[in-house]
Design goal:
Domain AMP-dependent synthetase/ligase: 61-384
Protein name: Long-chain-fatty-acid--CoA ligase
GO molecular function, one term: long-chain fatty acid transmembrane transporter activity
Number of strands: 30
Structural class: alpha/beta
Strand order of the largest sheet: 2-1-11-10-12-13-14-15
Oligomer: single chain
CATH architecture of the largest domain: 3-Layer(aba) Sandwich
Number of domains: 3
Distance between the termini: 70 Å
Largest sheet: 8 strands, mixed
Catalytic activity: a very long-chain fatty acid + ATP + CoA = a very long-chain fatty acyl-CoA + AMP + diphosphate; tetracosanoate + ATP + CoA = tetracosanoyl-CoA + AMP + diphosphate
InterPro entries: AMP-binding_CS (IPR020845), AMP-dep_synth/lig_dom (IPR000873), ANL_N_sf (IPR042099)
Length: 626
Amino acid sequence: MDLWLTAAAGLALLLCSYIRTFCPYFSADCAYILRSIGLGIRLVRYKRSKPFYSLLDCFLDAVGRHPEKVFLHFEGAAYSYKEVDRQSNKVARALRAEAGLREGDAVALFLPNEPGFVWTWLALTKLGCPAALLNFNIRSKSLLHCFSCCGAKVIIASPELQDAVEEVLPTLREQGIRVYLLSGSCGVEGITALSGKIAQASDQPLPRELRANVSIRSTALYIYTSGTTGLPKAAVVTHERVWAASFLQAACGVTPEDIFYINLPLYHSAGFLIGTAGAIERGMTVVLRRKFSASQFWEDCRKHEVTVMQYIGETLRYLCNTPKKENEKDHKVRIAIGNGVRSDIWSEFLNRFGDIKVRELYAATEGNIGFINYTSKIGAVGRVNFVHSFFFPYTLIKFDIEKEEPVRNSAGLCIRAAVGETGLLVGKVTQRSPFVGYAGNKQQTERKRLRDVLKKGDLYFNSGDLLRFDHENFVYFQDRVGDTFRGGVMWLHLLQAGLMVCLPAPAHRWKGENVATSEVADILTMARSISEANVYGVKVEGHEGRIGMAAVTLNEGGEFDCSDTYKQPCLEMTGTFKMKKVKLVEEGFNPALIKDLLYFLDPEKKTYVPMTEEIYRAIASREIKL
């Protein structure tokens, strides 16, 4: 007997040694798969429950379990679960009385990061009303577009955004749109102050009957994504998608005892779905900030004992660019969830700030497939595993970058990319992994549908992203198809006889966001000296993603006006100038390759300056930070 026990123990040790040597990610894979199966079972249970169990019900259960637990920390104030619940009841009753909102009525939220954003959304959810989350940076035509495509008849705005609302107020009034301002008073005709009504409303719970017809497939939100061309598209986010996104925190190992730090915009999927919805699903405490501040980041984390943070690639880069301090590792952050960080920044971040588990992920608001890097493998955005691919079928297919279309064989079908080969990610559209599309934009919805992929008649979601799977089953993001870039236009390339200038438009609002080239092109044509603009993205060594560059044609007989171009506002759109961009992209912003005039945006001088070899070398060596 002892001999058998000794042999078994020896075999177990050999097996463990083998797994550690040849399957180093085995335990992480098993833990993630088991966690994912558990979350999948929960979602099925929620789908089948009568009545439907929504994230709102999850929030109300959390109110019942721990009413006094802090839900939101914001600018020195703390709001408990009970307080947020009662405030949302007041907002819901005020909106129902004043605006006559009923189940199914879409409402646009034009609000910055603040607690009012959260309880106003909860109020709408209690009324069964989907919310359109408007980017508070957009103005004029873009604002009207985003508002109208979701079919909303009501817009709720912050007092600090009143000027932006007034710009489009005549059009809103013509369309019969009711405008409410979260303030005590407003003297502008056509805008109703709502705060007084909210203060007077009852904070008692609202009956479930008000949202009796809401189901797992009902629209919960409209979240706007930057298109590769044209204006932002309103991605339809169902309650099923809200649940799936909220599970990401749990999949990354976040617990109800954690404290989550949100400094990303709540109008984005990351801040709202992964951050806020995920916190509700976990029943945890959130530290909410108006906007990201590199200088205050770690102080906030220490003050509130933050254990989980969110990031985009630029976030970690900005943190790594801050002056070094002795107490950099003096914090309790253990998990960072986000996307878009370069490998070198990832490594530098860990060296500077300690052993933080970076959970890099890949996903799209409207997409039906995503990945999470639940290991500590630097640079990967996820891992391939059989459970994931079984429930959410996907593949990488060969893609022709020049033609910007999938490569097809003689039978008209797409060709799978080999392991290690870059390919276009496509996700099979099934009942479990649907693609709902964009509100009010059938054309853009159809453009995302790819048919006859692996067999005739099949249907896949076209992610528009190029990825690579390696031999260890890790997933790497390679590039984005189409005309988007990160940040504002940094250079202008002035075409001779069509002068091509490399200009940067004011970029501070767009850091961390994908920008549609056609939108920026239209902005540039508003400058007095520019008649046409062709905007594209170029890679810059040492920086994430692509940075904007524009080839512009000057008005006949005119000269380039640096100061006037700098002053152009952000984002309008018509989109006219069509020209081949491949050669321009290859040239980038290297003055040695470009014979035309080239300009660089100098933020300190607040104007465009001629691009020189010296500036080019300084950018390449990161002496000049973009």
